[in-house]
Specification:
Layout: E1 2-6, H1 13-24, E2 28-30, H2 31-40, H3 44-55, H4 61-72, E3 80-83, H5 89-101, E4 108-113, H6 116-125, E5 126-129, E6 135-137, E7 156-157, H7 164-178, H8 180-186, E8 192-196, H9 201-211
Parallel strand pairs: 1-3, 1-4, 2-3, 4-8
Antiparallel strand pairs: 5-6, 5-7
Helix pairs in contact: 1-9, 2-3, 4-5, 6-7
Bound molecules: adenosine monophosphate.
Adenosine monophosphate is lined by residues 9, 31-32, 35, 52-53, 56-59, 64, 84-85, 87, 91, 161, 170.
Length: 215
């Protein structure tokens, strides 16, 4: 299975992508996670990306495409789930070219949709473990409001770019640069599925499995 999950910040791409990746036994690549790790490790990539991420802007296409090429390695060998990539039409074209080099195509593009007010609420409630990266959401699950990670005991923090002003910019960038991809994929031969991403995590996951399931 080669799947792209599209949607605005906070819609649940990471959460749903993790579940699906585990069920399908395939890796999930999230460009945001890869970039945040580069920032934490203060690599040249991280130093370049941080300037954009702090403002809620997109990291340049060429940088992200290189990173995805490295992450995927030989994509023909395994399936994969991409979360947070592509984010522009240029990136989608780059991905298509990369897959074509290996003679393969995407099996599905899943678009998760939720109203903007709900996205803002979810982003405001997101807490991330500084040690292992586990994600919690106090808006969806008030019992996750503890200060330490249930999995590793690490400290839980709000992502810097989840601060309200930056989120407004990320949503604007999404509308301007990423939303045009929906039409682009809808016009492409790749199977394109639009899913309502409201309700509980389980509700959304059930909806997702009605359109794509690897078991
Ligand atoms: P995310 O974790 O997907 O919300 O991404 C966090 C930030 O990383 C974004 O606001 C961008 O600055 C950057 N980023 C992640 N993925 C991409 C991408 N595909 N293209 C450009 N920038 C990205």
């Amino acid at each position: 299975m080669r799947i792209v999950i599209l949607g605005a910040p906070g819609v649940g791409k990471g959460t749903q992508g993790d579940r699906l990746a585990e069920r399908c036994g395939i890796p999930k690549f999230a460009t945001g996670d890869i970039l945040r790790e580069a920032v934490r490790n203060d690599t040249p990539l991280g130093r370049e990306a941080k300037r954009y991420m702090d403002e809620g802007e997109l990291v340049p296409d060429a940088v992200v495409l290189d990173l995805v090429r490295d992450a995927l390695g030989s994509p023909s060998a395994h399936g994969f789930i991409l979360d947070g990539f592509p984010r522009t039409v240029t990136q989608a074209e780059g991905l298509q070219a990369l897959l074509a080099e290996h003679g393969i195509e995407l099996n599905a593009v899943l678009y998760l949709d939720a109203p903007e007010q709900e996205l803002i609420r979810r982003v405001a409630g997101r807490r991330v473990c500084v040690a292992c990266g586990a994600v919690y959401n106090v808006s969806l699950d008030p019992s996750a409001a503890g200060e330490v990670c249930e999995q590793c005991g690490g400290r839980l923090e709000t992502r810097e770019d989840d601060e309200a002003g930056t989120v407004r910019n990320r949503l604007r960038v999404y509308r301007e640069s990423t939303a045009p991809l929906l039409q682009w994929y809808a016009n492409s031969p790749t199977p394109f599925y639009e899913l309502e991403a409201v309700g509980s995590v389980d509700d959304v996951y059930r909806r997702l499995l009605t359109v794509v399931d690897c078991s």
